[in-house]
Write a structure and sequence with these properties.
The chain has 161 residues and is an all-alpha fold. The protein contains 6 helices and no strands. Helix 1 runs antiparallel to helix 2, helix 2 packs antiparallel against helix 3 and helix 3 runs antiparallel to helix 4.
Length: 161
């Protein structure tokens, strides 16, 4: 496990390369998913794009795709059945919490503080769905917020990061 406090100062710097890659992957995944069949494909396209970034860093990263798809599916069902679509920010937070929960199941194997991922995911999707930006930029917002959170969480990882 990495110990952030005892790291040399040059290793404590924020990993901007990882963050930029994560934002680009999330943005491209969102755009590609929207170009296909959004109701079904966004979870898969974002999961695959993010997997490409996680793959060299952690073992068994392929489960990230499955978790992203499952979270997207369960979150989508929740929105259809329970949450009124007029509450965009609340809808985004609930949707993000479902995705975060599914991804947490995978993330907990690598990151001791992975419980924070649920809040990070809920916050990112709440901001993304809030209407502050147009639909093409939702993936960038989600990727920006989750990228910051994941970069910080991976500093305490059990894996290779």
């Amino acid at each position: 496990m990495l110990n952030f406090i005892n790291m040399p100062s040059h290793e404590r710097l924020f990993n901007w390369k990882f963050w930029i890659q994560w934002v680009l992957a999330s943005t491209l995944g969102w755009l590609l998913g929207n170009a296909l069949i959004p109701e079904f494909s966004i979870g898969a396209t974002i999961g695959i794009a993010q997997w490409l970034i996680l793959r060299p860093l952690v073992s068994n990263a392929g489960w990230w795709i499955v978790a992203s798809m499952a979270g997207w599916f369960i979150g989508g069902l929740n929105l259809l059945i329970i949450t009124p679509p007029t509450l965009e920010t609340v809808t985004g937070a609930i949707f993000g919490a479902w995705i975060g929960l599914a991804q947490w199941i995978v993330l907990r194997k690598w990151v001791p503080l992975s419980g924070w991922w649920l809040a990070i995911s809920a916050l990112s999707w709440a901001i993304g769905f809030s209407g502050l930006v147009g639909s093409p930029f939702v993936g960038a917002i989600i990727g920006s917020v989750t990228g910051i959170g994941l970069e910080l969480l991976l500093r305490y990882s059990k894996g290779n990061f």
